[in-house]
Design a protein that fits this description.
The chain is 4% helix and 57% strand. The protein has 393 residues and is mainly β. The protein has one domain: Outer membrane protein transport protein (OMPP1/FadL/TodX) (Porin, Beta Barrel), CATH 2.40.160.60. The strands form four sheets. It has a 14-stranded antiparallel barrel. A hairpin with a 4-residue loop joins strand 19 and strand 20. The radius of gyration is 23 Å and the shape is elongated.
Amino acid sequence: MKLTALKKAILLCLIPTTSTFAAGLDRSGQSILPFLQSGNYAEASISILDPNVSGKSNSGAAVTDMADDYYFPSAALKVQATEHFSFGLIYDQPYGADSQYSAEAGTFGDGVEGTSVKVRTNNLSLIVGYQPTENWNFYAGPVYQTVKGDVSLRGAAYSLLSGYDINLKEDDAYGWLAGAAYQIPEIALKAAVTYRSEIKHELNTTETSNIYIPPNYLPTLPSGVDLRSVTSQTEVVTPQSVNLDFQTGVAKDTLAFANVRWVHWDQFAVSPVALATASKIAKGKAQNLIDYSDDQISATIGLGHKFNKKWSGSVSAGWDSGAGNPVTTLGPVEGYWSAGLGGQYSPAENYFVQAGVKYFWLGDAKAQTGGNVVGDFSDNEAIAYGLKFGYRF
């Protein structure tokens, strides 16, 4: 059974084979698949996530939907310069967070404002590939990344830290990626493993709060401690990861695909100076702004089918382990299960339009701050939508 044309007729479902809603701060899934397309190729896409995350505080008060909608674009360019060398450029937004609690006075609000978080990242990966034979592709390259964030803590859950704000100014840094792919075009088989390094950032930080401990209030603090405005640098290390991608023809005009992703979250922690100092004074132990206790593992499997020269579609199912439970109040979800549908329309052989939708059953989680569980979030969901344009030249 020859399926040589299949790799041109069926591209994987628009909604990435990893996820738009994943453990920790993971978003894009950092796919390498555009670089593994044959010939010269370019694509641009946008994905939108509409989550619904609600729960209740320890007092039994309802916590209404605290997860904001968000969107993120991506783009890729791959050039087959010679028979043996290819070059690629991939842009995505690998990590992020968007949460906004109600301002209503209570566990996560002070009557004027609610707890909120916004984290933004940008990645630009430059890839050089070497193909010694038709079957093998070895690739590597530098990764440029920016990170910034804003967090506000409000409400009884944070005790004396209610009223705390932090601005993490944008910082850029470099990492790298490397991988290898193997293919058998005659049966549309392709397998790839890609490693991405951790990337260390030092972000200029401004923390403001209502915390002032006067001189001699505590014997260990004879000079007093003023945490009402603190400027410093905060270390943020985005995690290393490994992606495994696989696809193969299984029947006429039918392709099976799978993705497995591992992200090293269990050592991730953000610990700004003022927050750590205030929590250590109050509780005897420095508190992290964000941290995770487990690594993330996610998996997606699916089928793609070509109906005719212009139309093809795909179905997929996914699972994400989460990154530990209890979790931070800034993202109270523990993994998910998902199901997706995608369609592709190809007016001509060299370009296409894809659209897709994916539904997420979000895992129940207990939200904690300072090591104390302060809320319970369950029976939540999310829907992702996407649109992609691809062109071969």
